[in-house]
């Protein structure tokens, strides 16, 4: 059995990183490169970077995608962790652009529902291991689950179990299951959904939506799920990934995050560089006062 993974998710909208709540409220949390550089120091199992900009509402979706490719290119520099890119992907050529820019895998969601053959084309081109099919769901009044497309705006007529089977047959390598109702709510993962998708497919699963504390991840991983993902929970706390790994590893065997010393050292080096810069500025001012700079 594969070692369980904990995967932070970054959401990119109109050139900024945001936190999401139920796919409706998006809070700006800043420049993507500063946060990505911080995550690079965390020895992540993997990083998922999703562009949630509503491409279909834009008059220039190509320009939006080009900016996203440039973001992935900059994000992947000196990045030695697996990187998955998704959002707004419509063609195999766009997947190729993202992989060329530095992504290891791609995630397709709405376009896969509209054009299922894209899954097969992607699997044939890059290998199934590089193709993740994202599925956004909501709980329906009957207690089942409905699939939604276009950022949770459009309900699909496909049944969840049927789409899991079809996408697997078409060549998907892994599923990313995101519960819209729990997105950003910090109420824990939907274990009924976890059990449902686990029983419906043999493909690896990434479960997302609802993490409020590290303990929320343990029941999911204990149920045999390959990976849990979360976004908001990692945004504000330094070394939060290492803390999550440390806490969860007591219940589930997983790869340790060898982060502490490396991150602390890099932080000390940055602080030392800032101090040296300040000291150098003071020295230049003193020399200038004494007329030694003339």
UniProtKB/TrEMBL annotation:
UniProt keyword annotations, A-Z: Amino-acid biosynthesis, Histidine biosynthesis, Lyase
Gene Ontology terms, MF aspect: imidazoleglycerol-phosphate synthase activity; lyase activity
Class of this enzyme: lyase
Pathway: Amino-acid biosynthesis; L-histidine biosynthesis; L-histidine from 5-phospho-alpha-D-ribose 1-diphosphate: step 5/9
Amino-acid biosynthesis listed as a keyword: yes
SUPFAM superfamilies registered for this protein in UniProt: Ribulose-phoshate binding barrel
This enzyme's EC code(s): 4.3.2.10
Record-linked InterPro entries: Aldolase_TIM (IPR013785), His_biosynth (IPR006062), HisF (IPR004651), IGPS_HisA/HisF (IPR050064), RibuloseP-bd_barrel (IPR011060)
Keyword match Transferase: no
GO BP, sorted A to Z: L-histidine biosynthetic process
Reactions mediated catalytically: 5-[(5-phospho-1-deoxy-D-ribulos-1-ylimino)methylamino]-1-(5-phospho-beta-D-ribosyl)imidazole-4-carboxamide + L-glutamine = D-erythro-1-(imidazol-4-yl)glycerol 3-phosphate + 5-amino-1-(5-phospho-beta-D-ribosyl)imidazole-4-carboxamide + L-glutamate + H(+)
Family: Belongs to the HisA/HisF family.
Function summary: IGPS catalyzes the conversion of PRFAR and glutamine to IGP, AICAR and glutamate. The HisF subunit catalyzes the cyclization activity that produces IGP and AICAR from PRFAR using the ammonia provided by the HisH subunit.
Oligomeric form and interacting partners: Heterodimer of HisH and HisF.
Record's protein name: imidazole glycerol-phosphate synthase
Organism: Micavibrio aeruginosavorus
Phylogenetic placement of the source organism: Bacteria, Pseudomonadati, Bdellovibrionota, Bdellovibrionia, Bdellovibrionales
Underlying gene: hisF
């Amino acid at each position: 059995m594969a070692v369980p993974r904990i995967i932070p998710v970054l959401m990119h909208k109109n050139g900024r990183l945001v936190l999401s709540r139920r796919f409706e409220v998006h809070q700006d949390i800043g420049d993507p490169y500063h946060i990505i550089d911080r995550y690079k120091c965390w020895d992540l199992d993997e990083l998922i970077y999703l562009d949630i900009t509503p491409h279909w509402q834009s008059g220039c979706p190509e320009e939006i995608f080009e900016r996203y490719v440039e973001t992935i290119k900059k994000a992947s520099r000196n990045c030695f962790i697996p990187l998955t890119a998704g959002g707004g992907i419509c063609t195999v050529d766009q997947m190729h652009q993202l992989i060329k820019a530095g992504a290891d895998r791609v995630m397709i969601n709405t376009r896969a529902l509209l054009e299922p053959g894209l899954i097969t084309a992607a699997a044939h081109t890059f290998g199934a291991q590089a193709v993740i099919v994202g599925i956004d769901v909501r709980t329906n009044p009957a207690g089942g689950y409905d699939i939604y497309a276009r950022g949770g705006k459009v309900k699909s007529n496909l049944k969840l179990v049927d789409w899991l089977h079809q996408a697997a047959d078409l060549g998907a390598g892994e599923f990313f299951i995101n519960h819209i109702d729990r997105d950003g709510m910090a109420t824990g993962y939907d274990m009924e959904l976890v059990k449902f998708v686990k029983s419906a497919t043999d493909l690896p699963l990434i479960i997302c939506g609802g993490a409020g504390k590290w303990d929320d991840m343990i029941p999911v991983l204990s149920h045999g799920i390959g990976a849990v993902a979360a976004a908001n929970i990692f945004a504000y706390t330094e070394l939060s990934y290492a803390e999550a790994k440390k806490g969860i590893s007591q219940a589930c065997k997983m790869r340790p995050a060898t982060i502490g010393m490396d991150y602390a050292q890099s932080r000390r080096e940055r602080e030392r560089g800032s101090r040296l810069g300040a000291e150098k500025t003071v020295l230049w001012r003193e020399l200038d006062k004494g007329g030694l700079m003339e």
